[in-house]
Amino acid sequence: MQDNVFIGRQPIFNRDGEVEAYELLYRPARQATDSSGMVSGEQATATVLTNTLMQIGIDQVAGGKLLFVNGTYDFLTGDFPELLPPGRVVLEVLEEIEPDDKVLVSLRKWKERGFTIALDDFVYAPHLQPLVELADLIKVDITVLPHSLADERKRLAEFFHGRLLAEKIETAEEHKEAMALGFHLFQGYFYEKPATLSRKGMSTNQAQALQLMRQAMEAESAEELEETIARDPGITYKLLKYINSAAFGLRAEIKSIRHALTLLGLRSVRTWASIVALSAAAADKPDELIKQSLIRGRFLETLAEQSGQAGHKSDYFVLGMFSLLEAMLDQPMEEAIADLSLPEPVRRGLLDRSSRQGALIDLLEAIEQGDWERIESLIEPLERCNIPALYMEAIFWADELQLT
Questions:
Q1: Buried (b) or exposed (e) across 222-237, using 16+ Cβ within 10 A?
Q2: Are 229 and 270 in the same domain?
């Protein structure tokens, strides 16, 4: 993989709450930009993007889903899409692209080759009608509309009958509104936020799962941990499924918790038992929320190794994993971790974003959102770490885990 390229992805959900696709978030790192901080040339950007996708592989970047790729003018009118699999890639026409003859000829060609065409951040104007006629999908940024989302949906119905995607959906209320208006796809970080942040009572299943998680984290011996896990056959099954997944790279199948403790050690199994219990407590949430938590945990774990904190990598993993606890449990973070036996640096990072550990969660959010300026400022203390490569590896690792 090209180490000077930041690659992230944002999930796109269907109406059933399943991830149907990912949008590629992409930018060359600092050394690939010019003195003004801008990417040095559309042509060069398109070349690096295409080479990176070819080198990594679409399946790995997209986790087996469709991949939305932002198409600049040079990208769409050049030969770059020739190298990509049409059935796996959605070409996004950026909002600043005008429908000149060269663009329209190119889009017709890519559509005939089997690519899906999407119009990004679309607001209708009569001169854009030629683009509309070629589009399979229109993306509506709900934050920049000159009128209500309901009015925009009504206007779109007059001239477009394809699929509609509502993007920049940041709250459960916005998601509910877009669902009610008949949008087909949804993009944004609504799934990483609590549906309703409250000090509500937990369901029986949640309470049991969290009790098991607390007991697992507090277990001081292999025997105590084995006994704790054995109380719940469902947790035992899922834990063994996790550990036997390709992400662990073990040569022999692990058939019991005792076997896992022997091979992996108390600390590792304790962490993973806690994660499985946590996923059970968040069973009513999208699978992507747990996956994103795993990506965060893995990224911080490997970051610890590269930054001279290898002795604390388990703490870093827990920090990343638990950073989405509010969304998993629909509870304030302070209450969610009140009864958990957490190392003090982890607790500090979860509760105080101004701390050194809290800044790592800020970095994770910036990478997930493609906030490149914020990323550049946050990685300055981590210059010797290969942030782009670590984050991409974390995505691959989480995709390999079997969560269900």
A1: beebbebbeebeebbe
A2: yes
Q: In whole angstroms, give the CA distance from residue 242 to residue 257.
A: 12
For residue 304, the enclosing domain spans 204-400
On the question of pLDDT at 32 being above 60, the answer is no
Helices marked H in 67-128: 73-77, 101-112
Cβ 46 vs Cβ 77: under 8 Å: no
Rounded-to-integer distance, Cα 393 and Cα 387, Å: 10
Q: Is the CB of residue 234 less than 8 Å from the CB of residue 217?
A: no
Environment class of 61 (CB within 10 Å of its CB; exposed 0-12, middle 13-18, buried 19+): buried
Residues 94, 66 within the same domain:
yes
Predicted confidence (pLDDT) at residue 104 exceeds the cutoff of 90: yes
Residues 159 and 265 in one domain: no
Strand pairing class (163-167; 185-187): parallel
Which is it for the CA torsion 284, 210, 278, 170, positive or negative?
A: positive
Structure tokens at 100: 């000149």
Could you read off the pLDDT of 340-375 as tens digits, one per residue? 888 899 999 999 999 999 999 999 999 998 888 898
With contact defined as beta carbons under 8 Å apart, do 289 and 243 qualify? no
DSSP H or E segment with residue 132: helix 129-134
Rounded distance between C-alpha atoms, residue 259 and residue 269, angstroms: 10
- H helix and E strand count, the chain: 20, 8
- Do both 245 and 163 map to the same domain? no
Asked if 97 contacts 103 with a C-beta cutoff of 8 angstroms, the reply is yes
